[in-house]
Specification:
Shape: globular
Strand content: 15-25%
Number of helices: 4
Bound molecules: 2-acetamido-2-deoxy-beta-D-glucopyranose
Helix content: 10-25%
Radius of gyration: 32 Å
Number of domains: 2
Structural class: alpha+beta
Largest sheet: 7 strands, antiparallel
Order of helices and strands: HHEHHEEEEEEEEEE
């Protein structure tokens, strides 16, 4: 059988068209598969609970404290009293413990340091004339001398209902103004000071506006009377509970990275 050149050309053309259309359908199939993969990936990315949310990738204490409170816990101990204040801190979800109780351990700087050093982030809770005041020190104490700063430190005082937090007034305000074994509590140089030494170890001083803000009530002190020291009736330091062998942030020198 003999083929004419024309019929041969037609046959080649038909074959070429078939190959081209096969190729194009396979392209479409590939594109569809790719689209499905992308859809699956973006679905996975947008809804997966396994992937960290962007806000989880930054440390809570790389920024100033929030004024928001968090729900409390049942109970009347110092740990339960301070719990609402710890939103957006490294202690937010951690079990808490009283590491220093001045009545039990002594109203002295040495007793204070022997109990709080190397315990990491801590809350100071003081009762003055029936009202609670205090401060959060994310850096803790270590009796290493010098000061320990944190942008996330804050002071707080009890209002008729709830709490008022006072943020650091400038970056690097001191969470611990004097980290010395024979010095008591110093938030800033003068914002909340309980020296725990001398004739009046329960003496409390507070001056706001320089290291810590004066707050919405524009207070010059957290104490009942401006320009006058007060006397503490109770004093506690509350720290986190850590598992055996678990690293306690800032238990010694403070983190170079400045996250905590
Ligand atoms: C806050 O109080 C200080 C005095 O302690 C005063 O000089 C200042 O004007 C007050 N600021 C406001 C906004 O009321």
């Amino acid at each position: 059988m003999k083929h004419s050149p024309v019929s041969l050309l037609v046959a080649i053309l038909i074959a070429a068209t078939a190959v081209a259309s096969f190729k194009s359908t396979s392209h479409i199939a590939t594109a569809r598969r790719t689209r499905q993969t992308i859809t699956r990936l973006s679905f996975f990315g947008s809804s997966s609970k396994n992937l960290p949310k962007p806000e989880d990738r930054t440390y809570p204490e790389a920024k100033q404290a929030t004024y928001d409170l968090q729900p409390g816990e049942f109970g009347f101990g110092p740990e339960q009293i301070v719990r609402p204040l710890l939103k957006q801190t490294q202690l937010e979800k951690r079990k808490l413990q009283v590491v220093y109780d001045a009545k039990k351990h002594g109203w002295s700087a040495q007793a204070f340091h022997s109990r709080v050093d190397a315990k990491g982030a801590s809350v100071v809770l003081v009762k003055v004339k029936g009202r609670w005041i205090g401060g959060y020190n994310p850096r803790g104490w270590a009796s290493l001398g010098g000061s320990r700063s944190s942008v996330a430190a804050f002071l707080f005082y009890q209002k008729l209902i709830g709490w008022q937090k006072l943020r650091v007034a400038r970056t690097g305000s001191m969470a611990c103004g004097r980290d010395e074994f024979d010095a008591g509590i110093y938030f800033g140089a003068d914002s909340l000071v309980i020296p725990l030494i001398g004739q009046r170890p329960k003496s409390v001083a507070s001056r706001l506006g320089f290291y810590y803000e004066s707050g919405p009530e524009n207070k010059s002190t957290m104490l009942p009377r401006a320009g006058e020291d007060a006397t503490a009736s109770e004093l506690y330091v509350i720290s986190g509970v850590y598992a055996k062998g678990e690293e306690i942030p800032n238990s010694g020198g403070i983190s170079e990275l400045g996250f905590y």
